[in-house]
Amino acid sequence: MRTATQPRLDAAWQALRQWLGATLLPAQCALCGIGCPQVLCPPCRAQYLGQGRGQLRHRCRQCANPLADIEVALLCGRCVRHRPAYDATVTAFDYAAPVDQLLLQLKFGARLALAPLLAELLHVAIQQQQTWEAPQLLCPVPLGPARLAERGFNQALEIARPLARLLDVPLQPRLALRVRDTRAQSSVAPQERQANLAHAFAIAPDHAPLLPGCHVGIVDDVMSSGHTVNALAAACKHAGAARVSILVVARTPPH
């Protein structure tokens, strides 16, 4: 149960982490290493993440995989044949060099100061969607207890916090639970990834009443095969969610 002082403690802890990041971490661009007061220097931002780079690509509305510019279809062939549990996906950019380093530094280098930048880039991509329907709440993809203890933070939650403020949508960080520790999807053969996530997620019983008829926005850092967000979306739909949108910073292009 959250006490009356908990929001103030959360805000104080967040401010302390930001101060420590600004004070103890070197002030340099995350991509080129040049000294700058921001986590990303203006030249790198303009060159690699400027207007029209990735955000405005013609993509499948359901899974956000790129479509050929000449295609007039709204969905890719895979989503037409096998409709996923989620209804739409928005991504900020393709998961490819050099911008993949932003996510790698956040996830494996604990450079938490990158999370607000990634949330901002995702917010820009969301604003560019002509058929955007705002979710009623945001849910970050949860980590299992062992992975969370090992890493010390959940990168999806770090992105979801500033994104929720930008969208003015309530954040429910404990809506979903990872009830089974799974192997990292990157270490699993493609044909085994769906089975690796079977029954991995559940909706927290005390939050289940929020879901009937609700539009849920699932937040994650990277979407590759889509099995992780699909498993979580299926759990939300099973609990009564009417619509699930995936909000992911980067999308791995199909090979």
List the helices and strands and how they pair.
Elements (H helix, E strand, L loop, with lengths): L5 H19 L17 H8 L27 H5 L6 E7 L5 H10 L4 H14 L9 E4 L4 H7 L3 H13 L8 E3 L14 H4 L4 E3 L11 E9 L3 H12 L4 E9 L4
Parallel strand pairs: 1-6, 2-5, 5-6
Antiparallel strand pairs: 3-4
Helix pairs in contact: 5-7
Could you walk me through the main structural features you see in this protein, from its secondary elements to its overall organization?
Residues 156-251 form the Phosphoribosyltransferase domain. The protein has 255 residues and is α/β, with parallel strands linked by helices. It contains 9 helices and 6 strands, in the order H-H-H-E-H-H-E-H-H-E-H-E-E-H-E. It folds into 2 domains: 8-49, no CATH class; 59-251, Rossmann fold. It has helices at residues 6-24, 42-49, 77-81, 100-109, 114-127, 145-151, 155-167, 193-196, 227-238; strands spanning 88-94, 137-140, 176-178, 201-203, 215-223, 243-251. It has a 4-stranded parallel beta sheet. It has a two-stranded antiparallel ribbon with strand order 3-4.
Brief synopsis:
The protein is α/β, with parallel strands linked by helices.
Helix residue percentage: 25-40%
Spatial separation of the terminal alpha carbons: 46 Å
- The secondary structure category is alpha/beta
* CATH architectural arrangement of the largest domain: 3-Layer(aba) Sandwich
The shape, in one word, is: globular
Radius of gyration: 18 Å
Mean pLDDT: 86
Q: Report the strand count.
A: 6
Count of discrete domains: 2
- CATH fold-type name of the largest domain: Rossmann fold
Which consecutive residue ranges, at least 5 long each, have pLDDT under 50?
Answer: none
The SSE order reads: HHHEHHEHHEHEEHE
Question: Approximately what portion of the residues adopt beta-strand conformation?
Answer: 5-15%
**Main β-sheet, spatial strand arrangement:** 1-6-5-2
Please report the first level of CATH classification, the CATH class of the largest domain.
Answer: Alpha Beta
Helix tally equals: 9
The largest β sheet comes out as: 4 strands, parallel
Domain Phosphoribosyltransferase: 156-251
Pfam family, one: Pribosyltran
Family: Belongs to the ComF/GntX family.
InterPro entries: ComF/GntX_DNA_util-trans, PRTase-like, PRTase_dom
